[in-house]
């Protein structure tokens, strides 16, 4: 269970107050780990993020709120299996239930692919993404559901999505960079993220915020499948989270694995909390 | 390149002597790592086995042979991609080429699933397997190509295979244990392996020998996806390898990952060498 | 949640069948980690044991039972705090509740000290223990609640306990060895455990079985606070578990930490399951 | 022994020159590791700091001094035991001896709690602290000697201390943040540390400088019990050390554990040396 | 093989196009690991750099080039042995062959000592170096071929070299700092590297660029033998690489070991690629 | 300092009783780590052995002795440098001093090469060795002082040595196996060690006992440079130590590195203690 969240399955007072029906936010673990590039282990992402969040204070001074007061419920993990397409559909259903209950889904990856069903369920106008990679491939090794294609899939498959804003991207194939020049894509290189105002760019539209932890420089998040140097600093990522939170109706943090000393998971948990505090404070 | 093997791609004298055409054994790396159970990392198996074999002496006193004299060629890895079925077919082609060149394939996994195409290519009469698990499921999480089904697939899909002998097995589902009572399956629990004579059981038939490293007790091979305590000792495994080698026309060692300090890879490399020395000495 | 167990907090059918009231076994995590000797990390023991048990098959062939059919409920962890005495009292209450519900407590340590409150709650006649250490000190560094004193405390403080049988012990202070010569203590050195019949020694009395994972040789359980070479083999430990299970009304496995590649946790989870299968089969 | 320091126990010339009686600085290891929050291992802090300092050059160009010329003596570790209160008293005595010999104590933690006895012995006017946390709790889990309470304890229990300046703090309970608004506390968030002049704030008063390594961003010091993202950069910490050193009569670096690849210990050792070089140069 | 490079030994089309004779760049692994200071493991540097480069995209947007189009050939490793002097001579021959073929050598260390033979072979006018250390010792522990002496050796032994520019240096012995004041040495401390223009300083002279990965702050490259805090940020290093590349006729990246989670190797591989892209684009 | 030993440098009562002059045993750390084969890290061997011995009880029941009563003094480490020949000479001098003081040297490696100077100083009649390797090469990569040649060097260079008994050896070059057939060499393969009586073979002659930790199966000692499966069990090694101890005038344990979870160091420390207890008890 994410520290400070209520366990969806629990009975008693907690459930009365913030049981699924009244939840403001619902954590959904999505430990998918199948796209075959480099270092595996994103299946342990949800578990590690929850674990390394145990040390964080419940209270947030900036917004003067207690995390445990904000109505966060933890649904637990939607265990993955080998048929990715079926899994994504099932996951979409789970997230859609959250949306129907008027709560904000907080998805813990798992590989980036899990953003696709979450965005399908949330149906935002803009997909905002912190990522080292463009993830704009048509397919990777013939697989259109690879994590390297997720932003492309979202642009193509989710009707409500008008635009993708990719912050911190610093690498891609030629095809991806060309695709990135389309009107519906904005790429902000790491060097320019501090100066860029996402809020301005959103112009009040509904957003979904996806944090691929490899957007951070590997120093801050070595526990990820494909380290890409020259990345974002955590405070730059936090600023983006704060700016987008009030307009976001869905959130995920993905690509955390267990191959470091907890840095990636620690940062991931902190950004999720920052999202929750900022979103709640903006109401 | 496996230490002591020739690189298939190299030119010059080595190729003249043991180029693919004249090879006696061909190492094929098969870093498949997709079945979604527990600890991933078998994609690093071939690399680790080659690395930890670097310290072994070229010479073997028991058989008075040099490994580098035995005509072992390393084909390199057949890189995996997301479409498992297509990958297995491609891998089968690669191994079939080895067989057609009258060499013995030595497959480095990767997950156990890779034994299926290798056995298809080799077409043995008996499938001998060191494994903690029965691997006799019809499907696992709906996937008939999971590593947990490989022995069942081999029994069902490879016409030449009359029988499977599974040594060291100590766990399985009820369905698997029931299937194991079929006439075409022999299960030897770890406690009885030292007493069991595989050679007798083979009665001169052609065999394929598959070493799932988790057959060993976790103390000897912690770097594997699903540790299963109460397992085999390395000398018991070596004895099986020695006994089967003379009658085996194919060999693999699978399920080694990178999540230990090298114990699993070291044992895997040693068993492969033991196979080569014994097979060569029996000619 | 221990794999195959029901979550105590969950509603619905599972609870109907094996809710706390009808449970046969109740898992209680006791992540105490304060005695200041060498390698810390037993606080992660319960988590790791549950994690590494995920790969085990639900079905047990020997006893022809499914773990998930045996009425095991997981109470979750009783989180530790700095006042050890108060914590142990609280833990005793938790375990006593289990006993009153006529279920067998299965405690996951945490340091060995947690056996004391569990034994107090269970009130057995004999304390059977697999351990490298005698744990018979009057106090360690002035602390009578150190894990190095737990067997002494149990002998002195729990009125029902007539005797302690310590299997696999190979080290202790002179004071401990002298105490071990008392009529109420039997020490079986690792070399003799295979020959020793605990069942005979129990003569039908009620027992509590405590598995200090350091009873195993460090090769099989390096992830423990004080490795002690020349230890037991897992099959010897399993044999003891099988023999004692039918007469045991309480069980724990302790001293597992997170400083290895999962070997200690894997063995611990397996021995717990062996206990459950054997105890259930004997009814 | 800290590299470049003399061993207090050694005889001969070194002792003649910088034996305890003439030492300018005395290193005291305080491997306390009992407060039960998250990742343990601070007991290995002193050992790791000494080890990772072995690679540093003896000479410092900025101050044109040799570390080994500055009269640093290493007292070794004051081994911890279970009675924290008694331990802290003993430690206080050890540090008081250093002070009476007119040397500056350099304490190597161990958990932050060890600053309390050190400050008691040094009796400064101001407690300057680099820390991610406020450590201003009245008690944590009922324990007033938890590392999470150390700054509060120092403010309350040490008469000479007029004020605490906490640099880099970014989290705390509501109670702590409220306490931090007292006249005797100054909190400088990480973002403002570069601009803040501690020297100005000290106005010539005697200070004790405590470096909780978790003040650094986790990228620079992952080996600590409670990682807190969005932290200080090492150069910002160095600047504080340089500014405070001339007015400081006591120093510690705490909360380093063994759960990273040496980054935390390396930074800790460097900051200790920076303190010594700056303090010595200011005389 | 470095990802995107051709294997020198391979036959067929690749060799036709970019075989050794037509290569623009040649990767040479130099896994020397003998200087006896602190953490060993640079022998695994070439292997790790190649491995962690596997995830990088072939295409570079900034220069609009494909790495695999740039004529990079991988010679493999020049395996080290105990006679360092002889090894360096042999390595020099290997690099000289590259130079004679009019290709740019890209040496993968191994300890920094390997720059000496590479510079001897390349015969540049200026030795540009990113390093935490001055490496200007006459000898270290009596060994003039220690990695701590390599820049001194290059200045003294290679006739063509007029000057050494050391960027990011922050430590050295007094002797080294004094030597650094010679007219032929420029030291740029980490704090000033961002402002410093290497291109200006080069004035069109031929350069050799050596990247000692410990020039980076340990947060970005913990996997190196002697971590030295307060170092460079990767973007600062990248800027230097970009500036020098067009004038450099030789390149190396050294001192990467296997004692981290891949951060050092990942950064090293990225800087090598940046060098190649920039050099090629400048033609 | 080895736990239970006195520090040679300390003053006061301890030194009076067991100062160097009256010592019965002297621990000498010899962290040599230069022979270039595979996994480095033996330089950390002495440190790790001392560290992992901290958990062992001072008292030994079998011999009814306290380790701290037996007059063991720790000389500390003889720090290594690059000139191996000079280092070995210096080390020989250190060990010779021990011998002249009529104490038994206990050398902690470091690589196996350090046995050579120790044996030179001790001048035994028989060199008894537990090792996976024959170490009988004339030279390795041209280096006659490689750890792979140490037993050959001892046979050739130390006049008093009449014979080498190598227990647990299971690999070597053809040249080594041929040399092993000489009258002055006895090789006992791992399978036969349990049956072999070293005491009988010694016939009362003076022996030096060298424990290369890789003699153990990798399960028991993965932290060593060249793992060699199919090795000895710790109890078999202990039996050899007990048998030889009474006749041995020198002892070492070598080839322990820091690349495991402490298993190798733990076993090494235990075997050293077993040697001391047995030797002392036999007087
Ligand atoms: Mn992504
Ligand atoms: Mn990404
Ligand atoms: Mn299998
Ligand atoms: Mn298996
Ligand atoms: Mn115990
Ligand atoms: Mn114990
Ligand atoms: Mn603190
Ligand atoms: Mn803190
Ligand atoms: Mn350097
Ligand atoms: Mn350097
Ligand atoms: Mn040896
Ligand atoms: Mn050896």
Folded structure, characterized:
Chains A, B, C, D, E, F: Its cofactor is Mn(2+). Chains A, B, C, D, E, F: Its EC number is 3.5.3.11. Chains A, B, C, D, E, F: Pfam families: Arginase. Chains A, B, C, D, E, F: Belongs to the arginase family. Agmatinase subfamily. Chains A, B, C, D, E, F: GO terms for molecular function: agmatinase activity; metal ion binding. Six copies of one chain form a homohexamer. Chain A is an alpha/beta fold and 283 residues long. The first copy, chain A, has a single domain, classed as Arginase, Chain A (3-Layer(aba) Sandwich). Chain A is 33% helix and 18% strand. Chain A is built from ten helices and eleven strands. In chain A, the strands form two sheets. A nine-stranded parallel sheet of chain A has the order 1-5-2-6-11-10-7-8-9, with helices on both faces. In chain A, strands 3-4 form a two-stranded antiparallel sheet. In chain A, strand 10, helix 9 and strand 11 form a beta-alpha-beta unit. The longest helix of chain A has 19 residues. The radius of gyration of chain A is 17 Å and the shape is globular. The relative contact order of chain A is 0.18. About 2% of the residues of chain A have low confidence. Chains A and E meet through loops of A and helix 8 and helix 9 of E. Bound molecules: manganese (II) ion (12 copies). One manganese (II) ion (MN) binds next to loops of chain D.
């Amino acid at each position: 269970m994410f520290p400070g969240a209520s366990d969806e399955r629990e009975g008693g007072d907690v459930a009365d107050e913030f049981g699924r029906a009244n939840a403001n936010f619902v954590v959904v673990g999505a430990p998918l780990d199948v796209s075959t590039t480099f270092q595996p282990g994103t299946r342990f992402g949800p578990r590690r993020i929850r674990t390394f969040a145990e040390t964080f204070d419940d209270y947030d001074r900036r917004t003067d709120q207690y995390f445990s007061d904000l109505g966060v419920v933890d649904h637990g993990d939607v265990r993955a299996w080998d048929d990715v397409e079926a899994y994504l559909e099932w996951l979409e259903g789970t997230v859609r239930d959250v949306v129907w209950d008027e709560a904000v889904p907080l998805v813990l990856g798992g590989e980036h692919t899990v953003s696709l069903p979450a965005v399908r369920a949330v149906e935002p106008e803009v997909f905002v993404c912190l990522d080292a990679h463009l993830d704009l491939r048509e397919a990777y090794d013939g697989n259109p559901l690879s994590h390297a294609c997720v932003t492309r899939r979202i642009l193509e498959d989710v009707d409500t999505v008008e635009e993708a804003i990719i912050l911190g991207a610093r690498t891609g194939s030629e095809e991806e960079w060309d695709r990135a020049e389309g009107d519906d894509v904005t790429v902000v290189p790491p060097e320019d993220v501090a100066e860029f105002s996402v809020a301005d760019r959103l112009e009040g539209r509904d957003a979904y915020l996806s944090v691929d932890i490899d957007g951070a420089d590997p120093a801050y998040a070595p526990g990820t499948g494909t380290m890409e140097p020259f990345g974002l600093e955590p405070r730059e990522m936090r600023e983006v989270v704060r700016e987008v939170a009030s307009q976001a109706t869905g959130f995920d943090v993905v690509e955390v694995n267990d191959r470091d000393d907890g840095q990636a998971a620690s940062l991931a948990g902190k950004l999720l909390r920052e999202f929750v505090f900022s979103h709640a404070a903006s109401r």
